[in-house]
Design goal:
This protein is 48% helix and 13% strand. The protein has 482 residues and is of the alpha/beta class. It has two domains: 2-290, Rossmann fold, CATH 3.40.50; 294-471, N-(1-d-carboxylethyl)-l-norvaline Dehydrogenase, domain 2 (Orthogonal Bundle), CATH 1.10.1040.10. It has an eight-stranded mixed sheet with strand order 6-3-2-7-8-9-11-12, sandwiched between helices. The protein has a four-stranded mixed sheet with strand order 1-5-4-10. Strand 4 (83-89) and strand 5 form a beta hairpin. Helix 7 packs antiparallel against helix 8. Bound molecules: D-mannonic acid. D-mannonic acid binds next to helix 10 and helix 15. Residues 195, 234-236, 303-304, 307, 380-381, 388 line the site of D-mannonic acid.
Length: 482
Amino acid sequence: MTIELQIGEQAPVPAALPRLNRSLRPSAKAPVRIVHLGLGAFHRSHQAWYTHQAGDAAEWGIASFTGRRPDAALALAGQDGLYTVVERADGGDSFEIVSSIVEAVDGANVGRLAELVAAPATAVITLTITEAAYRLDSDGQLDRTAPDVVADLALLAGTAAGGGTPTTPLGRLVFALAARRTADGGPLAVVCCDNLSNNGSVARSAVLGLAAAWDAGLAAWVDANVSFVSTSVDRITPRTTDADLEAVEAACGYRDNSPVVAEPFRSWVLSGAFPAGRPRWEDAGAVFVDEIEPFENRKLWLLNGAHSLLAYAGQLRGHATVAEALADPACLHAVEAFWDEAEANLASAGLKGAELRIPEYRAELLDRFRNARIAHHLAQIAMDGSTKLRMRAVPVLLAERSHGRSGAAAALMIAAWMDFSVHAGTLQDPLADEVDAANALTGTGRIRTLLALLNPQLAEDHAITELIEGLSGTFTEPAIGP
Ligand code: CS2
């Protein structure tokens, strides 16, 4: 059932509100055939929403596991997995109950994860574990020296002797795949839904890298039995606030501790095999393609690239949300200039220019970013910049240089990130310590050291370090916040 409210329209609030659950809103629980890692707002507004909308939804239940904390699982388990998607358009909100999550589990419950992944009925594992969780080094390979990777390898090695279980999402996934191999559960698909280019291959090399370091037999089994599907995912989903919980109460007449707010736009492009089947996501608008790279780059460079640029430039100029930053001509100009560079490379690589509808996509993005009813906080986007910029700024800068152009707009995004890293105080980034150490340096040495964290090749190019140094300070007037 969908309830629609126009702006300014108030729904009457009943005195005592019941909690949303499956007796209040009867809906059968589909059997678990999908296991998800990364139960968060985006998973609920995207993959779980698409699964709920699929024509064969009754056959496809999701068991969804949290990452670091159990909170999201506890909130959702308390309402039998049901939650409300608040679709927030310019003209008003609509509210829809999604029922595809049939089990919400604390990610630390690795035993349950292994049990479900081992079950032959499980056909698909989806991932939203964040870009940084793949622990890639600046060459795009699994960083086997990362402390948590080292720790998980030690834990995996000890599992046979009854030691602890892994703590990272990748370690847990590898552990669970080993259980499927032991149970002879058969082939299945792992569907990466994180914003990485070539995300299926990235997930594959990260999983295989970890598996091979633990057990060569497992790596061979994964190679033969697991299909890594690449996807481009899109739906702007800000963090849920208390006001959102109240809006759901007022409109729907029940208490939902786990609603999610999202823009009306959504897109899911997938490429790869599903050896044990999949839901009919195409019923909800998902698109299956042979060649995904052009779609991925369009989304990563145009949408996510603009987001990162706005996150750093916008906060340096005192703005808090995407819509606020975009209303600032200095930020808008930087975004348009970056889009021009990105577009030149999307088209010049011969990547189905016409099919990509880039001018229309850019115009749509401006509308989506200007949806002021979606308070999408720049601080949320700014996190994990060292990982995100490798996908969002570096490829455009490299492509511009290879065509003999300066790449100044992509370089400006990097310069803004560097400036932000000084002004931000505490940086939320997997390389926060390395960034802090680099910021203790001065002049060109500082720029080169920071750049090497993103891409060693760029750091060796004197013209690029000079360009970025010259662009430093572009957005620091007026200074950041009070
Ligand atoms: C954002 C994305 O936080 C970020 O880095 O750029 O989460 C973005 O909102 C989504 O990819 C939109 O689909």
